[in-house]
Structures are given as C-alpha cells and as structure tokens.
Write the structure tokens for this entry.
Amino acid sequence: MDISDLRDRILADDRRALSRAITLIESTRADHREQAVALIEALKTSGREAVRIGLSGTPGVGKSTFIESFGMMLTAQGLKVAVLAVDPSSTRSGGSILGDKTRMERLSRDPKAFIRPSPSQSHLGGVARRTREAVTLCEAAGFDVVLIETVGVGQSETVVAEMSDLFILLLAPAGGDELQGVKRGIMEMADIILVNKADGDLKPAAIRTCSDYAGALRLLRKRPQDPEGFPKATTVSALHEEGLRHAWDEMMTLIKWRRENGHFAGRRAEQARYWFREEVRQGLLARLATPDARTVMQDYAERVAEGEMTPTVAASEVLRRLHGEP
Ligand code: GDP
C-alpha cells in the first residue's frame, strides 16, 4: 500500500481513503501495523485539531438518537462530524451494542458526517488503542468534531475519557428519587451530564433527575481546570431535538475556557503520557501471547503447581527469559 498516497487522500477528505486507513489500523497483521504506524506518523503534522467528545450512557438512554440529532445540528452549521465507537461487547458476545446498522440512518447519509462502528478486537485495550488512532486520522482528515461513543459498562468510559477533550454522560430520567447507580468515578470524569428524554410525560422526571445530578456534581471537588459552574447537568430531548444547541454552547464554553487557560493542551499532553504507558504495557502483554512464551508459561505453571518452584521464583525466571536473558 502506498502510504504517502493514502496520506494525501486523507488530507484531501477522501472518505474511502479514510475508511481504508481505519481498516489498516484495526488490522493485527504485523505488516499492516507497520504501515499504520507510518501513516499516523505521516499525518502527525497536519496541524488540524478537532473537538473530541466522549459520550457514554447505558443501553437505552438514547445515545444513537442523541448522536443523530446532535450530529445533524452540527452538520447544519457547516461542521464536519465523525462518529466512532468503543464497544467492549462487540467481540465478547459477537453481538455489538453499538454496531447496529440501522442506527443513525439520517446522519449516515449526511455528506458532512462519517460513522464508523467499533473495531472488533479481542480485548478492550486493543479496541481502545485502535479507536484512539482512528480519532487522530479523523482529525487529520479535517473533521471539526469527533464523537466517541461508548456503553456505560465496565472500563470503557475510562479509556474513552482518555481520548476525549470533553466527556459527556448521557442519562435517562430516573423513576424514583435514587441516583441511577452511576459510579462515583464516572461522575468525576463527566464534564457535562445530559439528562435525555426531557419531553412529554417524562419531562418532570427529567428535570428532577437533572437537579439531583446537579446537586451531586456540586458535592464533588471543584476542578481547577474548569470555570465556575462546571461540571454541570442539563436536560435535552434527542427525540424532539430540544436543548441540543444549549448543550453544544455549554461544551464550547468549556472548551474555549480550557484553551485560553492552557488546560486543553495540558489534558492532551497527559493523555499522550497515558497512551504511551498503555502501548508499552500492551506490548509487554503481547510478548506473553507468543506460542513460545505460552509454552514457557505453561511449563513453569506446572512446576509451580507441583511445588517444585515457588510462584515468585518461577515468575522472575520467566521474566528473565522473556527479556532474552539466559
Ligand atoms: P441507545 O441504546 O443509548 O443508543 O438508545 P437509543 O437511541 O436506541 O434509544 C432508546 C429508546 O429511547 C428508543 O426507543 C428511542 O426512541 C428512545 N429515545 C431516545 N431519545 C429520546 C428522547 O429524547 N425522548 C424520548 N421520549 N425517547 C427517546
């Protein structure tokens, strides 16, 4: 594959080239990986910067409805919008939560939008690393906004927050007066909470839920990187396309403030550190997955099980051997 040609076409906003490039970065073949790394390197200096928005919410809260109407609102303003996903379920069960073909039909026909389902890889770490690279490709292709969607289960919010400039939590109106079991850690990651379905019969419950969460957010420690009033909660109706403009204005207020105060670049710098450590960690784990390493592991595991060696001694011998020492 001609990498410099692919690079030029991505810079010229050729969508087929972008799709091919994302397929390339998702491939686990060693030669593909090498080309992918070269491509990302070649696009590094594009100088283009998108607003990267992470969006999380449990199935049913209205993520696809929201992304569709929010995305259409942005493209109507002339902005180019890319939608990517991190779906930890897409490999495990074979049934992706976020990959449904019928989702976001209108947005997928919009020439200013680009939608790409979650890569299917064997573990969240792999999915996340490749999605992060896809974000940088979309950025080089000149997208103004990159939305990265994930389901509110497990670890995926953390990795999506680590590739986003803003992290948005989408919630549905609560039935009772309980907060919806949202983990404290996720609340702490959220820059803006959007309570969706604030329409019809659900509107009063949405308003109540919103004020509950606004209260809960106030109790969290104020973040030095944010202006007064953030993180905040507000209501939207994705279905009736209400509150979307307000939500976007809030997002832009936060982004603008962070840019002016150095926190935007600061957050990206921290994220670069995170992904560097993650690549090293995953690289080490990959070494354990080679056939040779597996044989060595099994061999030592047997010896440990039979009491021939202690786990500690066996582990340090294996590590020495993995490092190529005798
Ligand atoms: P996802 O699983 O988070 O992607 O949720 P969907 O976007 O598929 O929405 C789940 C259900 O909630 C669908 O039946 C939607 O029509 C409905 N829904 C989504 N947004 C709204 C909204 O703003 N108001 C109301 N009343 N229903 C909504």
